[in-house]
Amino acid sequence: MSDPFNGLRELYQEVIFDHNKAPRNYKSLEDATHSADGHNPLCGDQLTVYARLSDQGLIEEVTFVGHGCAISKASASLMTEACKGKTVAEAEQLFQDVHAMLTEEHPPHDMGKLEVLSGVREFPARVKCASLAWHTLHNAITLSDETAKTE
């Protein structure tokens, strides 16, 4: 008997591989108003997230640079696409929703394209890889001086 979710899993894997191979918004941002570093010592993922916020708290641009596993890079790439054009409050809500999706059995609601990360939940050690970029963006937009860690 075939697994009805096999096709969905393959699609999710394709999206992860695509965002890892050709990450979106992978560059430093010279005119960033906010930035933060992130490090996952368990996996070796390291990244810096840059954001340019308007005076009204709108994320006009968000980028990242660094190295890491496929899940870490794909998550950072997806995060930049999801957060661009959002307010800080909306980005913070996305951070909470993604965390819930990665750690709880049922996501809080339809997460759209970000749902490709939901499969990571089956591999608890990889949740840290998927959440690093989100913790790092959180630190950047809240002006934390600390390196984001997922330990």
From TrEMBL:
| Species in which this protein is naturally found | Candidatus Paenalcaligenes intestinipullorum
The molecular function GO annotations come to: iron ion binding; iron-sulfur cluster binding
Matching InterPro entries, A to Z? NIF_FeS_clus_asmbl_NifU_N (IPR002871)
Highest taxon of the lineage:
Bacteria
- What SUPFAM superfamilies is this protein classified in? SufE/NifU (SSF82649)
**Protein's name in the database:** SUF system NifU family Fe-S cluster assembly protein
Query: What's a BP term from Gene Ontology annotated to this protein?
Result: iron-sulfur cluster assembly
Q: In what residue span(s) does the NIF system FeS cluster assembly NifU N-terminal domain sit?
A: 12-129
Into which family does the record put it?
Belongs to the NifU family.
Query: Which Pfam family is one of those matched by this entry?
Result: NifU_N
